[in-house]
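Many introductory courses stop at the sequence. We go one step further.
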Amino acid sequence: MKVYGSILARLARGKLNWLFVIFFPALIGFVMILTGGVNEAMESGIKAGLADLDGTVLSQALVKQLETRYTCSMVPEGETSVLTERTVDYLLTIPAGYQASLMAGQVPELRGASLKLSDAQFMAGSTAETVTRALLLLAAGAEEAELPALIEEWVSASRVTVSAVAVAVEWDDLANWLGFYGWIGMLTAFFLVKTVMLDRFKGLPERVGVLPVSRRRYLLQCILAVFSVSELSVAVLLAGTWAAWGAAPPNLPYLALLLSCYNLFSVGLLVGLYSVIKSEGNVSIISIMLSTILSMMGGSYWPVEFMPGFMRRAALFSPAYWLVTGLRNIETVTAGTYWLPLLFLLMFSAVVFLLGSWKRIQKAEE
């Protein structure tokens, strides 16, 4: 493991590496702590209009949850003048059949409208979708007569609890910020991999041939060293999340595993790029473009729900999408939403590692 130790020492000497490994994840954690109070102040100033076309126990539960966070008023069906008259900032319509869909295990489509894309639309719309997901977990498969008791139990639950339903709304606020790691993680991997993979442009593959270690082992120890250092950013991010949440985040082991799987993909992608691209400058340009495009497509900057239909479908091919999906659904307990993001991240990682590592070894042996 002498190569592994040597690579760690090289990574430690890179000052820019620490900027991405420590500073930016710590900055995300600080912002999560800071915005906890800011979000509460912004939410209290948002005026939301609600049109409840269902009038059932579950639709009223959604209305009550929104009323605890925003200034709400009930609006008749089809009344849109409240937007043009600036009476409300955001108009949400709860469709007929809302409760029936939830009890059948389906997610009803909420209709939101505002004069422009604003904090009101983002925050109130996101809260409505999150409460709806929580109600789905609560009511799917239940009897209608059981709903009032289930709702009462949910409302009386404490902020931090093992119940997936009780933490759903609060966790989404943090998950939105954690989603930025979709961009930060790739940039971190870029600078770390750059430090150790410049050997290709300096003739080191030829020199490795005289070392008492095979090319495959050398490459494996390089990858392991880069991944080990990148995991420090996960530790910093988890510490910031813990501080912002005020206790251990829900499903902490799964959260750590999800971020680590994304790190693994990012390292594999950059190893692959350095393996197939001949110019160091081109690698830098393509890496930054890819990190930005994939994180934008995946919902790291804004919710995928705000994108056009064709972009939502394209987002499925972005690893950042599966990271964000895993973060937002971390409070759920169903096997599909729990393990599917991990499966796709591992699949993306396997593809880039196999292609990149094979190409690199092939070039070194030519």
